């Protein structure tokens, strides 16, 4: 096999969970979504946990001639586990019908007034090269938002540095999202940020957020 984006593919287990939801089929350029149908207030914060599994990654195969100039053909296949998914909170006017773009947009790029915790499994070296950073080669987790503007999977919407983590390995993972309505100073030692975060930290005379001039 040739070395491409991902060769360490682990097939998913045959057992199935009766409450499992599949966001997209194992085909390229697809996007899907599932939303909680009752709007929830986020001004007091919330906490949620969920499990996910990325399996049946699509394969791309091609035929190659024998390098010794014989008539033999060899098939080479590469596994493409892209592009990932995201946990999103939003106040888009489309409500439960909101759906962003496919590919690097991970289903949330284009959703207005949203914040996304993305689980990115695909390397986009060119389109994601911005002044605030570049896309990571490995699987990673990041937070993206453009306030009330349409969100984006590009790095110019990233609020912090990406965190590498194995995601598209065929295993079941447990994720926990904690949304705080204030800055938890006990976490500042482990805090990273990009310049994109500054507008979110300004208090704007609300007297409830950390003020940065």
Q: Spans of 5+ residues with little confidence (pLDDT < 50)?
A: 1-9
- Compute the average pLDDT: 80
**How do the strands line up in the largest sheet?**
4-5-6-7
What percent of the residues sit in helical stretches (DSSP H or I)?
under 10%
Describe the structure.
The protein has 213 residues and is mainly β. It has a domain at 46-53 and 82-212. 2% of the residues lie in helices and 25% in strands. It has one helix and eight strands. It has one helix at 198-201; strands at 46-53, 58-65, 73-80, 84-90, 114-120, 140-145, 163-164, 172-179. The chain has a four-stranded antiparallel β-sheet, with no helix packed on it. It has a two-stranded antiparallel sheet with strand order 1-8. It is elongated, with a radius of gyration of 20 Å. The model is unreliable at 1-9 (pLDDT under 50). InterPro entries: ConA-like_dom_sf, Intracellular_Lectin-GPT, Lectin_L-type_dom, Lectin_legB_Mn/Ca_BS. It holds the Pfam family Lectin_L-type_dom. It comes from Octactis speculum. This is Legume lectin domain-containing protein.
């Amino acid at each position: 096999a040739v070395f491409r984006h991902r060769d360490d593919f682990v097939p998913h287990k045959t057992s199935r969970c009766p409450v499992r939801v599949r966001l997209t089929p194992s085909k390229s350029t697809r996007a899907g979504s599932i939303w909680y149908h009752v709007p929830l207030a986020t001004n007091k914060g919330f906490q949620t946990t969920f499990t996910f599994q990325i399996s049946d990654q699509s394969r791309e195969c091609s035929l190659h001639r024998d390098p010794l100039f014989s008539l033999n053909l060899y098939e080479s296949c590469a596994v493409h586990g892209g592009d990932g998914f995201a946990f999103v909170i939003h106040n888009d006017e489309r409500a439960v019908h909101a759906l962003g773009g496919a590919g690097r947009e991970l289903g949330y790029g284009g959703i207005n007034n949203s914040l996304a915790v993305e689980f990115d499994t695909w390397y986009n070296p060119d389109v994601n090269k911005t002044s605030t950073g570049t896309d990571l080669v490995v699987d990673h987790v990041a937070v993206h938002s453009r306030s009330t503007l349409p969100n984006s999977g590009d790095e110019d919407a990233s609020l912090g540095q990406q965190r590498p983590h194995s995601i598209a390995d065929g295993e079941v993972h447990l994720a926990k999202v904690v949304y705080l309505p204030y800055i938890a100073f006990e976490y500042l030692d482990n805090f990273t940020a990009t310049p994109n975060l500054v507008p979110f930290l300004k208090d704007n005379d609300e007297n409830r957020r950390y003020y940065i001039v």
